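Retro notes, item 3 of 5
We never archived the inputs for the iron/sulfur cluster complex last cycle. Fixing that now. Sequence and ligand:
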Amino acid sequence: MSHNGKLYIETVGCQMNMLDSELVVGALRQKNYELTSDIKAADTILFNTCSVREHAEHKIYSQLGRLKFAKRQRPNLVIGVMGCMAQKDQELIFDRAPHVDLVAGTGQLAEIPRLIDESRATRERRTALSLGRRDGSRDEVAGSFESYDPLRDPEMRPSPYQAFVRIMIGCDKFCTYCVVPATRGPEQSRPPSQILSEVRTLAGQGVKEVILLGQTVNSYRHTENGQLFRLSDLLSLIHDTPGIERIKFVTNYPKDMTTDLLEAVRDLPKVCRYLHVPAQHGCDEQLKRMKRGYTIADYREMMARIREIVPGCAVSSDFIVGFCGETEEAFQKSMDLIRECRFKNSFIFKYSARPGTKADDLWSDDVPEDVKKWRNNEMLALQNSISEEDNADFIGSTVTVLCEGPSKAALKKYGQPVENRSDSSNAFTAGNPAGTETHKLQLMGRTDCDRIVVFDGNPRLSGSLVEVDIHDCTPTTLLGSIVTHALTHGMEFTLPVVF
Ligand code: SF4
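Structure as it came back at the time:
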C-alpha cells in the first residue's frame, strides 16, 4: 500500500544501525514516503536504537517522552522503535511509552513497512521480534533473525561514494558486558555470491569504497557450492569489481586475525591497510572477567604478526575503563598496552552495566563514576598524544585521499537541511551547497589507513582519489593542500596548490 507521507528517522549507535536505517528508509521510499528532518512535519517517526550503553537508551526514552502528546495534533501519526533496544526491551517499551505503535527488533527490519501500515489502519500496537538466545535451538533462534539486504538506494547513503555492506549478522562470543549476542542473535555469515552481487550493484551506483560490516567481521566463514570462504577469500572475490577503489572491514576479533587475512591485506592493493581490533583491556584478569577469549600475550602476538606481515598498517582499538573490579593497577596495564601498541586511535568507553548480561548478573558495578571519568580522560589524553605524534610523521609527505565531500566545518558554514538522506537528524548535503559550485570549499576524505584529511578544493573532486600534501595535523586530522599536476612544454610538473 503506497503512502504519501513524511518520515522522520533518528539513528543512534554503530555502523550496522546506520546501514539498517538506510535500508528501511530505502524500502519506505519505494512506498512514496518522503524523508524529513522536521519531526513536527512527519506522520511516521522511527527511532533506530542502541543498547550498548545506558545513556543511548535514556536518550531515546526521553525523545519518546517528548512525543507523548503529539498524537493529539496528529492523530494519524505512527511512532516506532527499532534496533537493539527494541529486541532487548520488547513490550516493556509500550509500558514506558504507551503512545508507541510498533516495536521491531534487528532481525525483523523487512516487517517494518507492514507494521506501519497495520498500526496506522487498525490503531493497534504491532511487534516483530526475534527469539531470545534461550528460546530455542541455535538454528531456530538464528532462523528468527533475518539478514535484511534489499536492493540498495543510492539516495539513501550518507555519502554517495561509500557504502556499508553487511557480510554477517549476530555474534556468539558472549563477552560478559555485551548485549549484542542477545539483540542481534547468533553469528551468521551471508553467502559470498550475494555479497559480490551487492558490491557490483553499489559499484554501478558510483560507490568507490565499500566497508564490510560484522560484529566480529574476521570470523566470517561460509561454504558455497562446496567451497569454504573465509574473509581473505571474500576479499579476493570482490577485489576486482570494476569501479571499487577501496575495501575496508570492521570490526575484527583478535583471536580471528589469521595470517591468510593479513596476507590478503598485504597483497590486495584495494584492501586498506587499516585494522580495527578492540583490545578492550590491558589486564589479563579483566579480560578473563570480560570473557574476551584471549590474553595480553595473544594480543601482543597478533600485533607483532600485523607489523611483520603488513608494515605500516594502521591499527585502532576499543577500551573499556571502570569495568567491574578494575583496580588502578589494572587500569595502568591498559595504559601500558596503548603506549606499547601506539594505536592510530582508540574508542574509549566507561563501563555501563547492562541488564541481562553476565557481568551484571555476577558482579556489582563497583568503580565509582568519578573514577571512571578520571580514567576515561587520562586514557583519552594519552591516546590523543600518541595519535598526534603519529599524525605528525605525515607532515611533509603526500598522501592519496578518497575525497568524500565538504568537511563538517564547510557544511556547518553552508549547512542545508537534508530532504533525502537516511537519517533526518543528521543534516548532510552531498554535492555542493547552493552557490558554491565554483567556490573552493574545505573538503574531507580519508587515506587508505583511515586517517581523516581536510584540504581546500573544488567540491567536484568528491568521489575521486586525490593527492594531498600534508603540512599540519591534530590528534584526529591531517591538514593539507591538494597537489595538481600541470603540463608545461610537454613536461609534467607537480605544483602544490595553496588557497
Ligand atoms: S565480540 Fe564481544 S563485544 Fe563484540 S559484539 Fe560480540 S559479544 Fe559484543
